[in-house]
Design brief:
The protein is α+β, with helices and mostly antiparallel strands. Helices cover about 30% and strands about 25% of the residues. A hairpin with a 2-residue loop joins strand 13 and strand 14. Helix 2 crosses helix 9 (about 210-225), helix 3 (about 60-75) crosses helix 4 (about 100-115) and helix 6 (about 155-170) runs antiparallel to helix 8.
C-alpha cells in the first residue's frame, strides 16, 4: 500500500505553515489544539469531535446529562448485537436487499463505541463491550461490507453512510483495532469510496453534499492510514482544483465555471439545490455545512488547510442560505425535501445540525464574521424554547456553545426581514411575532422530492403552500406531516379528487416560467407570485402574495380547470389547543371535532393562537374541524412506523366550483393578530385591491401609498405600466420614491416600466437600470439578462 506522505514528512511540512485559514474548535480545557500534521494528532481532533475530548467536568449538570444521554443511546443500540448470528448482526437488520440495514448496523456500532470512549458512561472502558464491538465490526466486514460483497439498493449507504459510521467507530476504537483489522477496515472503505473525486454509478461526479460527505469519508480514512496524499486530494476536491471548477463545493453555482456542472450546491442568493433541481437547504444543505465544518476543523493548521478564497462564501451560506429559512429553531419545511417525511427529523432536529455547524465554523472566520456568527448562534439557541439545544447536542458542541453563550457578544435579536430565493422558487417573511414561508415551483425547479419510498404524499408541497410559524413552535413537529390533509395544504390551490397514487418518482418541473418576485431592500416588503400549472390535472391559476410587514395580501385569478372541483386553502392548522376559538364575523363557531359548515358572507375570521383573515369582499368560506389519524408509514415506507397517531386540525377553504373558468380570491392574512385588530381591519382594510385580472395583480397599502404589482403579461395598473412579465414595488416616502423590480420568468433581457408620475429625477440606481422622460412621467428600463430573478432598485425624488 502506498502510504504517501509519512509522519516525518508531514511534521517537516507543518513547520513551514503560515497563518491558518481555519482553527479547530477548542478542547474542553479551553486551549486551542496545537498545529498538527501527524496522524495521531488528527485522530485526536476527530476523537474530540466525537467525544468532547479530555478534561470534561463530569460534575457539571449539563455535561453529566449529556454523558447520561450518550450512555442511554448506547444501551438501546447494543440490544440484540450478536456476532454469532448468521443472518444479521442485529435481529432487526437482516436484509440483504435494503442497504440502510448495513448503514444502521454500523451506526449502532459507532453509537456504542462513543459511549465506550466517553468517561462517565456505564459503558466507558468496558473490555467485554470493546471485544463485542470488535467482533461486530469483523462480522460486518465478513458478511456485508468490503471488496468481496456486491453493493445493493442505495449507493449512498455504501459510499457514505456506512463508511462514515465505520470510520467513526474505528477512530474511537483505534488502539484496540490491531494492524490486520485496521487494514481490513481501510480496504473496505476504500473499495466503495476510493477518492474524494468519486464518480458515481451513473458516471456523474459526486456534487454538493454528497461530495463533502465523500471527502469526509476519505479524509478520516486517510487519517487512520496516516496518508497525507489522500488528505491533499480531499483539500483539493472541495475546490475541484484538478477539474473544471464545475464541481467546486465552495464556489457559488451561478459563477461561470460552476454553471457548467449539475447545478447542485449553493447559489449566491442563498439557494441550495441537490438532486439537480430540488430545494434542499434544510436537508442536504445542512449536511454539507455540518460535514464541511468538521473537515475544516480536522485540516486546520496542517499542510492540508483549505486556503481556497471561495471558502469565504461559507459566510454567505449562513447569512443568506440558513438564517432566513430558520423560524425559532424550525427549518422551513419547503426546503427540507423528503426529510419532512422522516419521524426522526421532527422537533427542530435540522436546525440543530445548522447550529452545530456554525459553532464549529466560528474559529474559521475570526473578526467581524466570528462576532456575527456568535450573535447568531446565541439568538438561535435562546429563541428555540421548544428544543433545548444544549440538552440535545453532542459533548464537543456543548462545551463550545457554552463558551459562545458566555461571550460578551450580544445575541442578534429576532430576524426581521423579507428574503426571496429566486434560484429555488421560495420566499421567507419574518416579523417579530411570526415567520411565513411560501413554496412555489416553475420550469426551473421540481415541485417535490419523493424517492426511496419516502415523502409519498408530497403532491402539493409547491402549489403555493404557505407555512406559518408562530409561537406554537411544535406545530410542524409532533406528527404534522403524516396527519395533515395532503390535498389541502395551507395556501395551495388544488383540484379535489380521489386519493391519487403515492407520489414516489412523480416529481416534475412546471411548464410555467413565472415564479418569483421583488423585494424592497432593507424592509419587510415583498411581492411574490407564481403561475400555477398543476401537475396531474388541467388546473391553472395565477397566485400572488404581497408581504407588507404584518399583513399578507393573497390574490388569485384565472383559476380554471376542465373538470373537478377547485379549492384554495385559506388555512389548515394543527391545533395546539383542540378547543381553540374560531370567530366568524365576531361569532364563535362550535369547538368540537366533527364541526363543519359553509360560512356565508364572511368578512373576517380569527383563530385563537394563529391570527386573523380579512375578506374585504364578503366571501363564502368552508370550515372543518377534525381529528386526523395516520401512520408515518403511509408517507414513508423506508423509515415510517405503523403506529397510528391522531392530531386535531382546523381547515378553512374557498370553493371555486366544478370546472371553474376564471375564478379568483382575495383576502388579507394577519398572522398573530388579535381578534380585536382583525375586526378593526375588517372595517377599514389596511390594503386595497387594485387589480386581479389575468394580466396583473396589484394592491396598495392605505397608510403610505405603497404599491405592489405582479404583471403576468404586459399591462397597466393605475399609474404603472409594464411591457411584460414583472414584479414591482413602488414606495413613496416624502419626496422620494423607491422602485424595486424583477423578472420572475428569468427569461427576459429587459423590463420596461412606465410610471405616470411627473417631476421625478434619479437619486440612485442599481447597475443596469436607466431612466428617460415620457409625456406622462418617467420610463424605467432595467437590464434583467442573467439576473436570475434578482431584484433591481432605483430611488427617485420629486422636484
Amino acid at each position: 500500500m502506498n502510504r504517501g506522505t509519512t509522519r516525518r514528512t508531514v511534521l517537516a511540512g507543518a513547520a513551514a505553515l503560515g497563518a491558518a485559514v481555519a482553527l479547530p474548535v477548542t478542547s474542553a480545557g479551553g486551549t486551542a489544539f496545537a498545529a498538527a500534521g501527524d496522524a495521531s494528532a488528527l485522530r485526536t481532533r476527530w476523537h474530540t469531535l466525537l467525544t468532547g475530548g479530555p478534561g470534561l467536568d463530569l460534575e457539571d449538570p449539563q455535561i453529566a446529562a449529556t454523558v447520561a444521554r450518550i450512555g442511554k443511546a448506547a444501551t438501546t443500540s447494543v440490544k440484540g448485537l450478536d456476532p454469532t448470528r448468521t443472518d444479521g448482526l442485529f435481529p432487526d437488520l437482516t436484509s440483504t436487499t435494503l442497504s440502510n440495514h448495513v448503514t444502521t448496523s454500523f451506526k449502532r456500532l459507532a453509537t456504542v463505541a462513543t459511549a465506550w470512549a466517553v468517561p462517565g458512561t456505564p459503558q466507558y472502558g468496558d473490555t467485554a463491550l470493546r471485544d463485542l464491538l470488535l467482533a461486530g465490526i469483523d462480522w460486518m466486514l465478513t458478511n456485508r461490507y468490503g471488496p468481496e460483497h456486491t453493493r445493493f439498493d442505495n449507493d449512498w449507504d455504501w459510499e457514505i453512510g456506512s463508511a462514515l459510521a465505520l470510520n467513526d467507530a474505528s477512530v474511537l476504537l483505534y488502539d484496540a483495532l490491531g494492524t490486520e483489522r485496521l487494514n481490513r477496515i481501510s480496504t473496505a472503505v476504500r473499495h466503495y469510496t476510493p477518492d474524494p473525486n468519486l464518480w458515481r454509478a451513473d458516471r456523474q461526479i459526486a456534487t454538493g453534499a454528497n461530495r463533502v460527505w465523500i471527502a469526509t469519508v476519505v479524509a478520516v480514512n486517510a487519517v487512520l492510514r496516516d496518508n497525507g496524499d489522500d488528505l491533499l486530494r480531499v483539500r483539493d476536491a472541495l475546490s475541484d482544483v484538478e477539474g473544471s471548477g464545475a464541481n467546486s463545493v465552495l464556489a457559488f453555482n451561478d459563477t461561470s465555471a460552476a454553471a457548467e456542472g449539475t447545478g447542485e450546491g449553493f447559489y449566491s442568493d442563498g439557494s441550495f439545490l441537490q438532486h439537480y433541481k430540488h430545494p434542499y437547504n434544510g436537508g442536504y444543505g445542512k449536511e454539507l455545512l455540518g460535514n464541511l465544518s468538521r473537515l475544516l476543523n480536522l485540516l486546520a493548521a496542517t499542510p492540508w488547510t483549505v486556503t481556497d478564497p471561495d471558502l469565504d462564501n461559507v459566510r454567505h451560506w449562513v447569512d443568506d442560505g440558513f438564517d432566513p429559512l430558520i423560524a425559532r429553531g424550525d427549518v422551513m419545511a419547503s426546503v427540507c425535501g423528503r426529510e419532512i417525511a422522516r419521524p426522526s427529523k421532527q422537533g427542530h432536529v435540522s436546525a440543530q445540525t445548522v447550529i452545530e455547524a456554525v459553532v464549529r465554523l466560528i474559529p474559521s472566520f475570526p473578526g467581524d464574521t466570528a462576532d456575527r456568527f456568535t450573535a447568531l448562534v446565541k439568538q438561535w439557541i435562546a429563541e428555540d424554547t421548544y428544543r433545548d439545544f444544549l440538552a440535545a447536542t453532542d459533548l464537543a458542541t456543548l462545551v463550545a456553545a457554552r463558551r459562545i453563550i458566555a461571550s460578551p457578544v450580544p445575541a442578534r435579536g429576532p430576524l426581521v426581514a423579507h428574503k426571496q430565493h429566486p434560484r429555488m422558487d421560495k420566499a421567507a417573511h419574518h416579523r417579530p411575532s411570526f415567520a411565513l414561508g411560501i413554496s412555489a415551483y416553475s420550469s426551473r425547479i421540481y415541485n417535490y422530492e419523493s424517492i426511496q419510498n419516502e415523502n409519498l404524499h408530497a403532491w402539493h408541497l409547491s402549489d403555493g403552500m404557505v407555512l406559518l410559524y408562530t409561537d406554537d413552535l411544535g406545530h410542524y413537529s409532533e406528527d404534522y406531516w403524516p396527519t395533515v390533509d395532503p390535498a389541502r395544504l395551507p395556501g395551495t390551490t388544488v383540484v379535489v379528487a380521489g386519493r391519487p397514487a403515492d407520489a414516489a418518482g412523480q416529481r416534475t418541473t412546471s411548464t410555467a416560467d413565472w415564479a418569483g418576485g421583488a423585494v424592497l431592500p432593507g424592509t419587510t416588503l415583498g411581492a411574490y407570485g407564481m403561475e400555477l400549472r398543476a401537475f396531474g390535472s388541467s388546473l391553472r391559476g395565477l397566485k400572488s402574495w404581497f408581504c407588507l410587514d404584518d399583513v399578507i395580501a393573497c390574490v388569485g385569478s384565472g383559476i380554471t380547470a376542465d373538470a373537478g372541483t377547485a379549492e384554495t386553502v385559506v388555512e389548515n392548522r394543527k391545533l395546539r389547543d383542540p378547543q381553540a376559538t374560531l370567530l366568524v364575523n365576531g361569532k364563535a363557531v362550535p369547538a368540537g371535532a366533527g364541526w363543519s359548515d359553509r360560512l356565508g358572507r364572511v368578512r373576517w375570521l380569527h383563530l385563537a393562537g394563529t391570527g386573523g383573515y380579512i375578506f374585504p369582499r364578503a366571501t363564502t368560506v368552508n370550515g372543518l374541524r377534525e381529528e386526523r389519524t395516520a401512520t408515518w408509514r403511509e408517507i414513508n415506507l423506508k423509515y415510517g412506523t405503523d403506529t397510528p397517531v391522531t392530531r386535531p386540525y382546523l381547515t378553512l377553504w374557498q370553493d371555486h366550483g366544478t370546472a371553474p373558468d376564471g375564478a379568483g380570491y382575495f383576502w388579507l392574512q394577519a398572522p398573530a393578530a388579535s381578534a380585536g385588530r382583525t375586526r378593526l381591519w375588517s372595517d377599514a382594510p389596511p390594503v386595497k385591491l387594485v387589480a386581479d385580472s389575468t394580466a396583473v395583480h396589484a394592491v396598495r397599502r392605505c397608510a403610505d401609498g405603497l404599491f405592489a404589482a405582479n404583471f403576468w403579461t404586459a399591462g397597466t395598473a393605475q399609474d404603472l405600466t409594464s411591457d411584460g412579465p414583472a414584479s414591482v414595488l413602488v414606495r413613496p416616502e416624502g419626496k422620494s420614491v423607491t422602485v424595486s423590480l424583477s423578472d420572475p420568468t428569468q427569461l427576459r433581457s429587459s423590463v420596461v416600466l412606465d410610471l405616470a408620475q411627473r417631476g421625478l429625477t434619479v437619486v440612485s440606481a442599481d447597475p443596469g437600470v436607466s431612466t428617460s422622460a415620457t409625456a406622462t412621467g418617467i420610463r424605467i428600463t432595467a437590464d434583467t439578462a442573467e439576473r436570475h430573478g434578482a431584484t433591481l432598485t432605483l430611488t427617485l425624488k420629486r422636484s
